[in-house]
Amino acid sequence: MKFIQRLINSFNYAITGIIKVLKSELNMKIHFIFAILALSSGVLFNLSKVEVLILFLTITLVIFAEMINTAIEELSDLVCQEFNQQIKLIKDIAAGAVLITALNALIVGYVIFFRNFKPVTLDLLYQIHQTPIHLTFVALVVVLLIIIAVKSRFNKGTPLQGGMPSGHSAIAFCLMIIISILANNALVATLALLLALLVAQSRVEGQIHSFWEVVCGAVIGLIVGILIFQLL
Predict the structure, then answer these.
(1) What pLDDT was estimated at residue 157?
(2) Which residues are catalytic?
């Protein structure tokens, strides 16, 4: 019985650690969201056993690296509360390990899902591509007007710096849609999406916007870009 109780306690401690990281670390929340999306997509598409196994291993590796990085940061802060160049180097190395696993996850996800998304993506881009190019400028102007209107409603920040929603993210994702439409190529669309995600991530990392401000801006940019080109 004591062995069983110790085993249960071990699981409780481990789950507590996972919940702690998930609550306190924004990057872990992002990893979980992408993991859920990837696994959900794996259910919808006809993935082989090998592809599913690679998907699970990749997700596990990213989450594992993020938890180790968080543990190193917590231990470093406990050992030294003041700024220390060596401590900073240790944190940077740990963060670099997470970045490598995240980039690997992007590559793995692209390779696994590309064959499934390519026909759908190209069909959608072809349909939208039939609209006039001048709608590009219409889309950008509409995005800017919406951002200004929403920011004035919340009375916080300037049109392109701080506040709800993120203007940079809105423009970046609207441009991503425009580039994808004009290029009419799935690979270009993927690269444009990656650039838009980097813009959004930089706004959060720079503490200019919160996570939800960036998400709101991205949604506005996506919706406006698609609707302008599809409906007009």
Answers:
(1) 47
(2) 66
